[in-house]
Amino acid sequence: MKILLTAINSKYIHSNLAVRYLKKFTERLDYECIIREFSINDRDERILEEIIKEKPQVVAFSTYIWNIEVVTRLSYLIKAVDESIEILYGGPEVSYDSMNILKELPGEYIIEGEGEKTYKEFVEYKLGMKSIEEIRGLYYKKDNEIFINGKRPLMNMDEIVFPYDEDENLDNKIVYYEASRGCPFNCKYCLSSTTHGVRFLNIERVKRELQYFIDKKVRLVKFVDRTFNCNYKFSMAIWEFLINADTDTKFHFEISADILKPQEIELLRKAPKDRFQFEVGVQTTNDDVLFRINRFVNFSDIKEKVEELMSIRNIKQHLDLIAGLPGEDLKSFKKSFNDVYSIRPEEIQLGFLKLLRGSSMREEAHEYEMKYSPYPPYEILSTKDISYDELNLLKKVEHMVDKYYNSQKFDNIIKYFEPKFNTPFEMFYSLSRFFDEKGYFNRNIGNNEYYKVFLDFNSKIIKEDNHILRDIIRYDYLNSNKRRGMPEFLVSKIAKEEEEKIKEKYRGEYSFRDYYVEKFCININKFIQSGEIEEKDTYMLFGYEENVVEIFI
Fold it and tell me: At 320, phi and psi to the nearest 5?
């Protein structure tokens, strides 16, 4: 008997944790188990061909909001090609209202909730070792009816099997790992609120498994733990182990900043630069809105801890906001954005409320007059507090923030424009309107155009001369791009004789096979450090290996 565990990931570089758990948990059973991973960007026809080529008896899909529509289409296609192939679904997208979902889908089975034990018993059933009526947590079709034998209790974490193989190739992959399951909080929009309590793996086991990733030189390990630091003794032990590790691997954690203890922050001061990435769910800075969604925390507490981490300057922080929350109108969201922006984290994510199956927020939608898409990812369309048009406005702002702020390729350009607007939100909003008017949201624009936009934006909206801005753009461009292929509008105006004079002076100190000369009309270093503009000819050597040196003539 052959089962094909199929993952449709959101990106090629992602790895699916769920299917690996299932395979590892059943590796002692006498059946053939194959894992195939695809991306939502793959053509349905290609995925179908690869699935059919494996000749499985059962195809098992790991389902999420980002892939359920692809999975549904593939399920119908599989049945059209070979009706004898059975289909099993699992994952968060089918774990709520499973009875009705299975009625709608062409498959035969759904695993509800945690899948390892249910899947193992399902395999035993297919091998003739167990009756299907004994399997808890499994929905199944029989004689045109759907049956369930009751819910399955949560697993003991000691029973979980490490999901990765010793010889598995994880090159160029974002690798997912969990050290705990569950969340201590009860946020209404989150599915973690449906399961109470947090279960942890043994600390020493976690260290051994993390060493596996370190030994394999994995680029990035993302912990999927909902609130990694909810038990400070646990988080301290893991962070201390990783701080002392000899590795270039980066580790990403979702944390609740407000509950960080002083001893955790003191420990984090010792972390090598960029070893850790923290994702902090702010969601809103409106304390009344936080209360409405069961987040019993004040933004001031979050801000204090995030700024303390910022002062360490060794941990990249990603702060999340959610538009469309109950009680938050456009004015309140603008304030939330400006509040978060004032902290200057490395990244700011503007997300939009999704009314997930099984979340209490979906159940309360009528109370706040929430209109949302009935199709995955069930994104909010409007509420009594914020309109459809306003949410669309925020989506355009989100695009600007992601491209121009989060990429960190335009930092000095953004610094130039900030004082020209009353608030950061106004700046990004004005830029998004300009983008919209130019039709840039409706077509792909090249890398160079993303820089040139600022010159046009400055001329039309700010109505100032471009000569200073052009040099600031050129500096940011050179920091993030190779000199070769520099667009004409950014080419240096340095005279040939002047360039030769500089080379002659510095030839004994620098190799001009490794460096090239650039001239700026402002004191560029002074602007970078203070934002102050001083018109003064400045000369820089840019290394092809990214280093930059100021020189004097």
Answer: -105, 140
CB 257 within 8 A of CB 295: no
Q: Which of 401, 390, 469, 406 is CA-nearest to residue 435?
A: 401
- Residue 39 backbone dihedrals phi, psi, to 5 degrees: -125, 155
Average of per-residue pLDDT values in the chain: 94
Q: Where in the chain is the domain with CATH 3.80.30.20?
A: 164-389
CA angle 255, 259, 264 (to 5 degrees): 80
Cα separations (Å) of 480 from 274, 375, 408, 410? Answer: 19, 39, 9, 9
- Is residue 116 within 8 A of residue 142, CB to CB? The reply is no
pTM: 0.92
SS (H, E, C) 99-131: HHHHHHCCCCEEECCCCHHHHHHHHHHHCCCCC
Q: What is the 3-state secondary structure (H, E, C) of 507-540?
A: CCCCCCCCEEEEEEEECHHHHHHHCCCCEEEEEE
Q: Name the CATH superfamily for 164-389.
A: tm_1862 like domain (3.80.30.20)
CATH 3.40.50.280 boundaries in the chain = 2-148
539 token code pair = 């000369």
The token pair that represents 315 in the structure block: 């941990």
The domain defined by 2-148 carries CATH number 1.25.40.20: no
DSSP code per residue over 205-248? HHHHHHHHHHHTT-SEEEE--TTGGGSHHHHHHHHHHHHHS---
Closest CA to 139 of 98, 107, 96: 98
Query: Contact at 8 Å (CB) between 498 and 520?
Result: no
Please check whether residue 351 is in contact with residue 280, taking contact to mean a CB–CB distance below 8 angstroms.
no
Could you tell me the pLDDT band of residue 194, with boundaries at 50, 70 and 90?
low
Total residues found in the chain within this entry: 553
Task: Give the confidence band of 548 by pLDDT, cuts at 50, 70, 90.
Answer: confident
